[in-house]
């Protein structure tokens, strides 16, 4: 079973407005690089990183020798997340994966174990159309979508369109309960940004 990955990193262009570009882990790794490094440990093949044309990619860590990472420049990324997603789907379409995991660059605490939970659940239940995590009643990315949903994803015309998939009786999905709100912190939200910055700036015992 082949599961691809799409890492939507085009929103990094808004760092100047949100300040998230200044977020660094102890050791200097950026918020965007943190999740990318975790995704590379999950065996996603290929792992498509969707970026804007004006991104110098200085935030991106070097790829390992085993990495299937590919960078896809999206010229329409400024029009919204659905356009970046479409670019990513176009990049994997010729490879005909069984499913794709879609992740966002603004969630620096997403661990490889969480992504592996999604892919493991799908491999045990190949008839599912999607697998997602839910916390306090909210669905959180990353989300795994089977190839049966690809046409729906391609047709999205707004950033909120994914909710239609989760509420459609035509799709069968699985929600995995998660008690860790920290995993899903969004660095673009002012409250989360402040908490992430405080955590990464706190002195560490040696």
Keywords:
206 residues, disordered C terminus, Spore Coat Polysaccharide Biosynthesis Protein SpsA, Chain A, single chain, 7 helices, globular, 7-stranded mixed beta sheet, alpha/beta
Explain how this protein is built.
With 206 residues, this protein is an alpha/beta fold. 30% of the residues lie in helices and 20% in strands. The protein has helices spanning 15-18, 31-39, 81-93, 112-124, 150-154, 162-167, 190-201, and strands at residues 3-8, 47-51, 69-73, 99-104, 130-135, 138-146, 173-177. The chain has a 7-stranded mixed beta sheet, with helices on both faces. Strand 5 (130-135) and strand 6 (138-146) form a beta hairpin. The N and C termini lie far apart (43 Å).
Brief digest:
With 206 residues, the protein is α/β, with parallel strands linked by helices. It has helices at residues 15-18, 31-39, 81-93, 112-124, 150-154, 162-167, 190-201; strands spanning 3-8, 47-51, 69-73, 99-104, 130-135, 138-146, 173-177. A hairpin with a 2-residue loop joins β5 and β6.
Overall pLDDT, averaged? Answer: 81
Low-pLDDT runs = 13-23, 189-194, 200-206
Secondary structural class: alpha/beta
- Tell me the span between the first and last alpha carbons: 43 Å
The CATH C-level name is Alpha Beta
| Alpha plus pi helix count | 7
- CATH-derived topology: Spore Coat Polysaccharide Biosynthesis Protein SpsA, Chain A
Secondary structure elements and pairings:
Elements: E1 3-8, H1 15-18, H2 31-39, E2 47-51, E3 69-73, H3 81-93, E4 99-104, H4 112-124, E5 130-135, E6 138-146, H5 150-154, H6 162-167, E7 173-177, H7 190-201
Parallel strand pairs: 1-2, 1-4, 2-3, 5-7
Antiparallel strand pairs: 4-6, 5-6
């Amino acid at each position: 079973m082949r599961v691809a990955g799409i890492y939507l990193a085009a929103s990094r262009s808004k760092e100047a407005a949100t300040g998230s570009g200044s977020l660094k882990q102890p050791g200097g790794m950026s918020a965007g690089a943190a999740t990318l490094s975790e995704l590379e440990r999950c065996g996603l093949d290929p792992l498509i990183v969707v970026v804007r044309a004006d991104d110098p990619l200085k935030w991106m860590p070097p790829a390992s020798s085993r990495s299937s990472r590919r960078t896809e420049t999206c010229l329409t990324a400024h029009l919204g997340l659905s356009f970046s997603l479409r670019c990513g789907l176009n990049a994997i379409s010729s490879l005909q994966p069984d499913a794709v995991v879609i992740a966002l660059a603004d969630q620096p605490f997403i661990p490889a174990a969480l992504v592996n939970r999604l892919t493991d659940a799908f491999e045990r239940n190949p008839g599912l159309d999607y697998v997602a995590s839910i916390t306090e009643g909210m669905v959180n990315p990353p989300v795994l979508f089977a190839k049966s949903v690809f046409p729906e994803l391609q047709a999205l015309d707004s950033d909120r369109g994914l909710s239609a998939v989760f509420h459609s009786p035509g799709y069968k999905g699985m929600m995995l309960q998660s008690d860790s709100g920290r995993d899903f912190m969004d660095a673009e939200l002012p409250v989360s940004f402040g908490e992430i910055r405080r955590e990464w700036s706190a002195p560490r015992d040696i």
